[in-house]
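Incident log, entry 3
Record: Solute carrier family 12 member 5b (1073 residues)
Problem: checksum mismatch between cached and fresh output.
Input:
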Amino acid sequence: MASDMEKSQQYDGKNMALFEDEMDTSPMVASLLSSLANYSNLPTGSKEHEEAENNEEGPRPSKKPIKAPQLGTLMGVYLPCIQNIFGVILFLRMTWMVGIGGVLGSFIIVFMCCSTTMLTAISMSAIATNGVVPAGGSYYMISRSLGPEFGGAVGICFYLGTTFAGAMYILGCIEILLIYIVPQAAIFKMEGLEGPEAEAALLNNMRVYGSLVLGLMALVVFVGVKYVNKLALLFLACVIFSILAVYAGVIKTAIDPPVFPVCILGNRTLLTKAYDVCAKTVELDNDTVPSQLWRTFCDSDALNATCDEYFSNNNVTEIQGIPGVTSGILAENLFGYYLEKGVILEKRGLASVADEEGPSPTSNRYVMSDITSFFTLLVGIYFPSVTGIMAGSNRSGDLRDAQKSIPIGTIAAISTTSIVYMSSVILFGACIEGVVLRDKFGEGVNGNLVIGTLAWPSPWVIVIGSFFSTCGAGLQSLTGAPRLLQAISRDGIIPFLRVFGHGKANGEPTWALLLTAGICEIGIIIASLDAVAPILSMFFLMCYMFVNLACALQTLLRTPNWRPRFKFYHWALSFLGMTLCLSLMFICSWHYAIIAMGIATCIYKYIEFCGAEKEWGDGIRGISLSAARFALMRLEEGPPHTKNWRPQILVLVSVDAEQNVEQPRILSLTNQLKAGKGLTIVGTNVVGTFLNNYADAQRADQSLRRLMETERVKGFSQVVISSNLRDGTSHLVQVGGLGGLKHNTILVSWPQNWKHPDSHLRLKDFVEVVRETTIASLALLVPKNIASYPSNGERFTEGHIDVWWIVHDGGMLMLLPFLLRQHKVWRKCKMRIFTVAQMDDNSIQMKKDLITFLYHLRIDAAVEVVEMHDSDVSAYTYEKTLVMEQRTLILKQMHLTKNEKEREIQSITDVSRGSIRRKNPTSLRVPQIGEEGASVAERPEEENSAPTGHMSHNTPGGGTASPDCEVQRTWTDKGGAKDQSQASAGKPEAGKDLFNMKPNQFNLRRMHTALRLNEVILKKSKEAKLVLLNMPGPPKNRMGDENYMEFLEVLTEGLNRVLLVRGGGREVITIYS
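Fresh output:
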C-alpha cells in the first residue's frame, strides 16, 4: 500500500498517472533517451557489452573513470589500416612478382586482390554502421550477423590468419636482417654451399633467429602493450618514408638513372660474387690477364686453359640493372616469365650459344630460381599484402564516431594502397631490368634489396625502413591476435577456449598470448615466407568471404533492424566479393582452401553440438525463416507424391492436474515410428479460458517439450485452451500444422477404463476423433495397452511384427512395420503378413499374389493366408450382442443415481439372461472351435465376459458379486450419467420389453465378425511383439458409440500390444521407383 502511495506521488504532477502501472516494465522516455545518449562504446570487449545476456562472470570493478574515446578518422582508422596493409610483401616480393608474372599478369593479380578487399570494405562498412559496434571489431560484426556458429568459426579463422601473419612478418624481418643487413650473423654458414644445402642452411638460420625474435616480441607484448602502441607511429613513418623513397627514385631514373650494372654471360645472369670485373680478361700494364670470372669458369689462370664450353662460346656483356622509366624496358617486362626451380635467370632478346650437354649443375656462378613459379603461387604470396583492412573496425571502441570513421577511413586506406600497388607494378616494370626483377634476393646486383636499388637517396632507406615496419607489423599481430582470442573466449561459444579468456589483473590476455606465440612458432618452423603467405591468405579470405555473406544476407532478407547509415552498398556487390574470395582461395592453393574450410566446418559443428546457445538475432536465423516460408509456399502447390509420403504425425496426449503427460510411452512409439524424420506435432488440451488458464497452458507446453526432449522426438508442441475436451481436440485436429506442412496422421492412445462412468467424455471424444479423421481423410493410429509398449532404450532380440491385412487402407499396414524396423528397438523383429480368405476365394493364388506384391514393394515379410469359413452365429455371440444392446437401451431409459442404476440394471439383466437360456433358440447352431471340441457357449461365464479392467463391486446386499453378477457389472460400468432432471422411474412395461427384445441383426453380424477374427488372431499372433490390425469405421449413428467400442474390445481381446490402423483414403506406398 505504501509503495502504491509512493508511486502515485512520484508520477503526480508529471502527467503520467495514466501510465503509472506500466512504469515498472516500461521506463519513461526521458530516462531512456538519457541512457542512450550517454552510451559509450568503450573498449571493454564484447563480453562486458552483453553482460546482461551472458552472466558467466560478474561485472568488473571499475579501476578508474575511463575517458571517452577521442580518435578520429585519420588517426583511428586511416593510418592504422595503411600500416597494416603495407607490409613485408611490398618490399621483399613485389619486384620479383612483377618479374615473374609480367606487368600484365601482376596487374591482374593486384587488381583482383584489391577489388576483393574493396568489396569487403563496402560490406564491412554497411555492417559497422548498422548500430553500435563495441570493441571486438570484425569478430563482433560477423558473429552478430551470422550467429554464434559462423561467428565462432570465422573468428577462429581470423585469429589464425592474424597469428600466421605475425609469423610472416617475423620471417620477413629475419630475411632482411640476414640477407641484406648483416649476412655474417648467420649461424649456419652458407659460403661454399650449393643448391639444397645452401637452402637448408638459410631455412635453419630463419628458424633459429625467428624463434628468438618471436620470444623477444612476445615478452615485449606481455610486459607493456602501451609501448607497442606508442611505437606504432614510428613504424608507420618508416613505411611511408620507404614508399616515398621509391617514388623519388622512379622520378630520378627519368633524369639520372642510378648505376647498378648486371653482368651477363651470353644471356645468363652471373652472381656478383663470381666476378670482380664483368670481363673474361683485363688489360694490366699492357698485358692481358685473366679475370676472376675466368678463374671461376676455367681450370687455370692460363689463357689457354680448358674452360666451360658455354663460357668459351659466349661473350660477357654488362647491362644496366635500372635503365630508367624512359628506357622503354616496359615492353620487355610486359608478359610473364615463369621458371622451374633451379633454372638459370636469362635475359630475353640476347643471342647465346647453348651448351650441347646442358648447363652446368653448379649454382655458384649464375643467379638461379629458388622455387618453381606459376600464376596461382603469385596470387597466394601477394594476397597478404592487401590484408589489414579490419584494423579500423578492430579499434571501434576507441573511435569518437565509429559509424562515420570506419567506412571513410577504411575505403580511403584501401584506395590509397591500391593506387600505390598498381602504380608500383607499372613503375617497377618500366624502370628495372627483367633479370633484376626476377632476382629475388638481389644476387646479381651485389646482394642489394631489388626495390632498394630503385630508391633514392640510398638503398639503405628501404632496407632499414622495411626492417622496422616488419618488426612493427609483427608486434601489432602479436598484440591483436590474443585480444581477438580473448573476445571469442569470453563470449563462451567455444567451451574449451574459455581458459584463454582470463588474463592479468589489468585484463591483458596472458594465456591467449602464450597460445598465439605457440601457433606463431609453427609458421616460424616452416621458415619460408613463400610457404607461410598462402596459409594466412586462406584464413583472411575465409573471413572476408563471410563478411560479404553477412551483408548480402541482411540486405536480401530485409530484416527490420537492417538500417545501415552507409548507403553505398548492394547485395550484388557483396555476392561478387564473396565469389572473388572463394575463387581466390582455390586459385591460391586448393588443398590449403580445403583444409581451412575443414577447420571452419569442424569448429562450426563443435559449436553447434557443444557450444553455448546464443540468440543474437543473426542473419542465419533470418534465412532459415525465409527458407521455411519458401518451402511452405512450394508445398502448397499440391499434395506430395506417393513416393514422398511419410507419416506427419499429430500426437494427441492428455495431461493431468499438474500439466504432466499421462501416457508418456506414446512419445516413445512416436520416436520409433519417425526415426527423427518428417513432421511431429504433440498436442494437448487445457480445459478453461485463455485469460484464466494461460499459465497452465504454458506449464503444459513446457512439460511436452521436456518429454519430447527426453524421448528424442523432433517436432513441435501445441497446447490449446478450450471450454471442454471435445472442442479442444477438434481444434487441434483442424488447425495443427501450417500451410502445406500439415499432419496427415493422428496418433491417439486407446481410452483407458472407457466403461467407467467418469470416462464417458473421453469415450465420446475418442469416437469423435475417429469420425473427424475419416471426414478429413487423415490416417489414424490407435495403440492399445500403450503402457506395455517398449521404451526407446529397450531392444527386441527376436519376435514378430504381425500385420493382419483385412481391408486395403492405402498401404499403411505395410508401411508402418517397415518404419518401425528402421528403429533399433524393432530392428531384430521379423515381419509377418496375414490376410483373410473367404469361402469363394482361392487362398493359394492369394498367397502367390501377395508374395509378388511384397516383392515389388521391396518389403521382406513372411506371408500366410487364413481361411475363415462361413458359420452360424453362436449362442455366445447372440447373448453378448443382446446384453450390449440392453445396456445401451437401459441407459437411455433410466437416469437414476449411480447406485440405483447399478441395482436396477443388474436385476433386469439377470432376468433377461435367464430368459435367453430358457428360450434356447433352435435356429442357432453351436460351432466347434478348433480341435478342442468345446463350443463357445460352454465357456465359463468369467471367460465369456467382455474384456475390461474389472473393478471389485459389492452386491446390493453387501456380499461379493457372483460370476454372473460380475458379467453384468462389466457392462453396467459402461454407462454415462444422464441428466437427472429428466429421470423417469423404471416402468414395468419397459422392463418387460427388455426381457422380450431381440438383438439388432447389424450388431449381431458385427459382433460375430469381431469374435471370429479375435479367435483367429489369438491363435496365430498370441506371442507376437506387436499386432497391426485394420480399425473398423465408426458408426454413423452417435447412439452406437458404446457398441462400437465394445466391438473393438472384443476384436483385440487377449492381445498384449495392438496398433489399430485406419488409412487416410490415399495410397501411401508404391511399387514404382
